[in-house]
Amino acid sequence: MKENIKVLLVEDEEALGMVVSDSLRSRGFDVTYCIDGEKGLEEAIQGSYDILALDVMLPKMDGFTIAKEFRKNNQHTPIIFLTAKSQTEDVVEGFELGGNDYLKKPFSLEELIVRIKALVKRFAQEEEQTIEACYIGQYKFNIIKQTLVLDENSRNLTHREAELLYMLFEKRNQVLERKKVLMQLWGDDSFFNARSMDVFITRLRKYLKDDPNVQIVNIRGFGYKLIL
After folding, report:
1. Which among 81, 82, 175, 193 could bridge 186 via Cys, Cβ 3.0 to 4.6 Å?
2. How is the chain split into domains, by residue range?
């Protein structure tokens, strides 16, 4: 784990933002704090951060929009949303737009620190290990560009879709444990996160449907298997 993790915190509740910023700095983090979405996006694009911690409900530009705009040019810096929203559709939207984790308010500082360190560590390991592209049946899957190509047709995947598909590919023709995916990509294996994961599995099946030799099979009680 690298020292002095650089965190961009965007939070419009100033009292909360100052408390979190000061607390993270006291633990050795290098924190830049912004109070509105427009300034947050500007800092995210111009700066060099190890992780973005974004409130969802922000003045001038919400956290989801920051993530969407940021992901146009940066697919590698992890994003954690800090949110009072907890409906499945809200969380799925956050992941689709490039989020990697979410933390429901109110949260403890200790939990935030654990989540930040886990994301930074995982992304550093993935950058070292990830291949650039592979074939899934007739599809060419570019992990870095997050595209899925069949013949002349190319589909852009969301960050979460690409992460999940790569995990399935790594364990192709073997069972990928449901709990492992939830812990690694979602942070815990709660029923709520499991429902979110099911949405992404359904979408990946749809994306791969034009090659009948490729299937994502549900192994009841255990997880999923990508059959090639």
Report:
1. 193
2. 6-128, 131-227
pLDDT digits (tens, 9 = 90+) for 140-182: 998 878 899 998 889 999 888 988 999 999 888 888 998 888 8
Measured distance CA(155)–CA(65) in Å, rounded: 21
> pLDDT of 66-123, one tens digit each?
998 998 878 788 999 988 766 667 777 777 788 888 888 888 899 999 989 988 887 7
**Cβ distance 59 to 33 under 8 Å?**
no
* Beta partners for residue 133, in sequence order: 142
Contact 74, 49 (CB under 8 A): no
What is the distance between the alpha carbons of residues 202 and 197, in angstroms, rounded to a whole number?
9
How is 102-146 classified by DSSP, letter by letter? EEESS--HHHHHHHHHHHHHHHHHHHHH--SEEEETTEEEETTTT
Rounded CA separation 201/17 (Å): 35
CATH of the domain spanning 6-128: 3.40.50.2300
Q: Is 169 exposed, middle or buried (0-12, 13-18, 19+ CB in 10 A)?
A: middle
Which tokens sit at 166? Answer: 């790569």
